[in-house]
Amino acid sequence: MADNTAFSLLKQRSIGTTRAVFQHALTGEPPHFNDQTPRSLYIHIPFCTHKCHYCDFYSIVDTRDRQEKFASRLVRELIAQSKLAPLPLRTIFVGGGTPSLLRPDLWTKILDALHDHFDMSLIDANEGEFSVECNPETVTQELAHVLRSGSVNRASLGAQSFNAAHLKTLERWHDPEKVSSAINTLQQAGIKRCSLDLIYAIPGQTIEHLNNDLQTALSMPIEHISAYALTYEPGTAMTARLVRGEFTQAPDELEAEMYDHTIATLRSNGFERYEVSNHAKPGAQCMHNLAYWRQQDWLAIGPSASGHFQQHRWKNTPRLDDYLNKDDEGFAPICDHEPPNARRELMDLLMTTIRLSEGTDAISVMKTADQLNASQKLMRAAIMCADQGWIRNANSERWTLSDEGFLFADRVAREFIGALIED
Q1: What fold is seen in the domain 4-293?
Q2: Residue extents of the structural domains in the chain
Q3: Whose CA is closest to 290, among 274, 302, 306?
Q4: Which percentage of the chain shows pLDDT scores above 70?
Q5: According to CATH, what is the number of the domain 341-423?
Q6: Cβ–Cβ < 8 Å for 366, 319
Q7: Which of 89, 166, 242, 273 is 20 to 30 A from 420, alpha carbon to alpha carbon?
Q8: Is the bond leading into 96 cis (omega within 30 degrees of zero)?
Q9: What is the pLDDT of residues 145-185, one digit of tens each?
Q10: Are 60 and 320 in contact (CB under 8 A)?
Q11: Which residues of the chain fall short of a pLDDT of 70?
Q12: C-beta of residue 368 within 8 angstroms of C-beta of residue 420
């Protein structure tokens, strides 16, 4: 493993490239691969036609038409990182931004590079998952056929709401009627697996409005729904408007009622909650997101993309110009890097796995905590959460949230993480 001092200096400078992060695996005969060899790949495409007011993901309205240059740069990064993924990929997820805004000919270039440099056999056999985020307005027959010919087998569409007034509040400018037609276009091209994103607790939204959104979504041929409470992230236009008093945030009681209504409605229609905000028909969970939440390894391509490789965590630069102009034999410039740290890894594992309906492997977690001299504090935190009714049993082999506990998932995670902070 490379010297952690060098990685600490790399993080302090907040500049470097992913080559330094991966150097320990790129050198040596044979390469250092193990059970955590990446089987997942995230690709970030930053282009948007409009910046939605609630969004804090890296996206830009590109006035310089840099799509072609971006696609070429992305391919170089794919080739560079392909050395780290010799085994068949299980999942690929392309997010943004608006990936479906990329020109079909550039999509072909990227998809060809994936097939040329990665083992796509599981995905080609439909045993893996290849998802692309799509804006309903940008789905065309040409794009759908290009994606399917490149082995894409799942699409995630940002519906957010089917109420025009609430879409306007969110600064989403698609026509609600386009969602259904986009799904039909994708499925006719052979992309049968479709997911919808919905947002609730929008200012002015009522339970009746939310129910209409849910019923509309359920009328469509989809297998997965992500339903998120509107959050006011720092630095977003939505938060600035809230501070200016342009609208009132939904009360906590209403947000909780909306969450409970969402769970009950989706469950009665065959969609089970498998993560705090994610619901799927049997066998239709998002495999890629499960890899994140289970803290498996994944590679990350594109500006602002974050990855996890053999306990190293990094984030590519969130500036398109820096990404395009700094090219270390394909490896991307980074703005942050965290070297291996057992305590942080355990914190991250607890933070994400507790959000899953399958919960956290308490036996494994306690074993690791014991090595960090934190097992007693962690058990006290688990007992407290159980006493509050948030987790079912502190002494079980798995810690799982109760129905009420799902409303307090962030609080449970904070309690667990707090128990691991060194005195």
Answers
A1: pyruvate-formate lyase- activating enzyme (3.80.30)
A2: 4-293, 341-423
A3: 274
A4: 91
A5: 1.10.10
A6: no
A7: 273
A8: no
A9: 999 999 999 999 999 999 999 999 988 878 899 999 999 99
A10: yes
A11: 1-15, 28-36, 50-60, 62-63, 423
A12: no
